[in-house]
Amino acid sequence: MSPFLVAGLASLVVAASTPVAAYADVTSRSRSDVVATLLPAIVTVVAEGVTARTPPADALDGVRSIAAGSSDRRRLSSLTQPMEDDTGTSIGTGFILTKDGAVVTSEHVVHQAERITIRTADGRSMSAELVGSDAVRDVAVLRIDPVPPLPHVEWGKSEALRIGDEVLVFGNTFGLGIATSLGMVSALDRDLGMGPLDDFIQIDAALNSGDSGGPIIDGDGRVVGIDTAIYSPTGVSAGVGFAIPSDDARKVIDAILRGKPPRYGHIGIRISDVSDEVRDALGLERSEGALVLGVGRDSPASKAGLRASDVLVSLDGSTVANARELARHIAARAPDTVVPVEVLRAGRRLRLSVTVAQSDDQASPSGVGNRDALELTRFGLSIEDSPTGVEVTDVVTGGSAESIGIVPGDLIVSINQLPVANTARLSQIVDEAAAAARPAIVIAVRRGQEEDVATLPLDE
Asked: Which of 241, 257, 273 is the last residue of a domain?
């Protein structure tokens, strides 16, 4: 079951015609009164002919695909798939933002939908048009033409939330109809590895299929978040839900309503944090910066001279602490901006200049395409020289090479940031690393259009 929170059909049962936001001092009122006032502004979103959207592990710069060996990370990634019924219809939740009919929902609910219908509190169904959407923040703005004007909500400030605050959650849970549940803010600024701008609000309220796009409401009755995902091994609520902060969503939605949707920068690389193992293998002083896992063919990074296994330590004069920080800075750069970067490569500090491109134009990672055989017993693999480099010809079951995903046909591009043109050079680099008592080597491997970086221990 896909955990994106979309499910069956439902309609609302309460109607109103006045604004329903701005509730001062909710604590002095009955919570049920607040719910009754808000319900008319919550709607069901029905999208027909949707296309399932699964953001790639390397979407934009900096999603840490090297950490995907964790089963938890894979489970979190699976939360990015919308649910559809047998007819290809996606059903979620939305809320009316303006009296003239602007409706907010999740982008994955309406992704490439052929037709969108809104069901309102008084039982009306009306067609909606897509004004704009942003897959990075997972928000979409729809437009309906209500008569009379519909009730609407107002934004709150997610920056004011604190861990332990109570919140109300609204959604079309399991398609049974709009419902609400009470929860608490469990954590802030959660990074799920779903994108470079991850900073989710974590709540313990019961979020389930059908709740995507529903609002998270604070103690003043204002929207402070938008339901987007859950963490669950079963696909139903385990008390770990995630919402997009309203401060982030509002900036994107305001831009969409102005006709100027946000643009995100990219330079065409995949990166990860520098682990202690990588630090020791490369002889670095600190586990800081971002390890380049792959460089897109004809990407800005490729044109600037960046290579897989480079460690990027500075961007525009500022030190890069980790992959997430780098990803955020790159995504925030406007396209066509020239950014100076510094990388560590084979013991040298290099200064390069990269021209940021728009993320929609991101290229796929670089691709490459045999015979003096060499067996590397310590890694459990065999290699041969080939016209295009050093090719893996065999991988031993249970060996360390197999454990990091190396397969026959892979091309070994570099070891410890040093290019390997043939098996003799590769063997020399490995022997030098072992003689220097390095605990591991950093290996860059190319497979078709993909290039990846991992570590192999030397002490096995």
From this structure: 257
